[in-house]
Amino acid sequence: MARTFSRLSESSISQTVASALDGNSLQNEILLSLPGRERATLFPQLEFVEMQNRDLLNQLGAPIEYCYFVNTGLASILNVLSDGKTVEVGLAGKEGFVGLPLVVGLSTSSTRVIVQVSGNAWRATAAGLARVLRKCPHLERKLNLYSQEFGLQAAQVAACNRLHGVSQRMARWLLMSQDRLGGERVPLTQEFLAHMLGTRRASVTVAAAILQKTGSIKYRRGTVEVLSRGKLEAAACECYTAMTRQLQNWRNEQP
Fold this sequence. Notes:
Arc Repressor Mutant, subunit A; 3-stranded antiparallel β-sheet; alpha+beta; 2 domains; 10 helices; Jelly Rolls; 6-stranded antiparallel β-sheet
């Protein structure tokens, strides 16, 4: 359970949150950006939870019970078709948040969100988030900005899935995952990556072989190791660069 900060000074809150909360390191960039007084308002509403691979966070069409400030690991946002097939339209890691409809007063999810890489998160109930948003203008602004960033990501990924080859898309996906996870290793299976990219496992096998041949990655069962970030960027399509450039432009525009 998250610690209550209401009796701490702003400097104590900042120091405590930046280092650890109840022994759990805080890495979520939205939470880290909050001023001390908003942390004091928000953190009593939060609970620290472990997320296991393939845990369901939000379900298509269902009421959103919890929102999540992802701390470590990776969540996959899936568009679900009428025949049950799914395709990934976005990722959320330590930069992000799951449960965006709640920010504008909506209560159901338009996507399915599952944990793709095990980790942990700070979560709040839908009612708890609604209570604090009215008192936390910085948090509300950061979540609105993140909704724009996620919309950009979803639009670019949709174009990428339609127009670019599997090896280019795989390179783009690995770069996005590494940005959110840190480190050089991305734990995943070919079967799961095929599911995320909306293609056949055989196509992922070929794509992984192409990227290994260029010296970009090394694939072992259940893990992809990024050997050369530069080579992986060169192997990716234009989508990764387009997204990162626009995100940086938006961040430069913020006061």
